[in-house]
Amino acid sequence: MSTDEASTEEEIVTETSGSSSKLIKIGGLLAVVLGLQVVVVWWLLSRPSVPATPQTDGELIESQFSDDNFDSGGSSVTDEEVPIDSFNCTNTSAIDEGVIHVSFHLAATTSPSNRAGFELAVTQSAERRVKEAVERVARNAPYDDLKDPYLASIKRQIKDEINKVLRKSYVNDILLTEFKIIEQ
Fold it and tell me: What's in the keyword line of the UniProt record (predicted)?
């Protein structure tokens, strides 16, 4: 063997041993980082939780009727129901060929401090404007909104329209009972 060939073989052996030592260093560093991550996760998950303070009876009842439990939200246990009226109207825009008759009983919830003013407004001072606003919502409602089991969109629109007519935020929630639609 010539001296050139021998020196080339030594360089190759030196390069491979150098690259394997780099791989060992990288592997060791990776193991240390993974070990630190495991320790941090274990420390975070093993921390004792803070015990919850017991709820009073009033807070327990309020939490059962929170916005998370109902789609319509807005209403609380302390709100009072105020009947508004029964409505029968025809919706011609919900379906292309035909008519939908809509009927329902309407009530609204309001805070006890607003009840007297709200009842006065919906039965005397703004009665016709409130009824017109409710009928407008029912007459212009899309078919999907009428078929919604919760009637969420219709309730929201009625609430907004009544509050707009009365120029005050009386209504917290809308209650629709005996809701019927008949397609013809």
Answer: Cell membrane, Chemotaxis, Flagellar rotation, Membrane, Transmembrane, Transmembrane helix
In CATH, what number does 74-183 get?
3.30.479
Listed in sequence order, the residues at least 6 apart from 183 whose beta carbon sits closer than 8 Å to its beta carbon are 95, 98, 99, 100
**pLDDT per position as a tens digit, 13-44:** 555 667 788 889 899 998 999 898 888 888 77
DSSP 49-79: PPPPPPPPHHHHHHHHTSGGG-SS----TT-
Q: Check: CB of residue 164 under 8 Å from CB of residue 133.
A: yes
- Are the CB atoms for 138 and 87 separated by under 8 Å? yes
pLDDT tens digits, one per residue of 122-154: 888 889 999 999 999 999 999 999 999 999 999
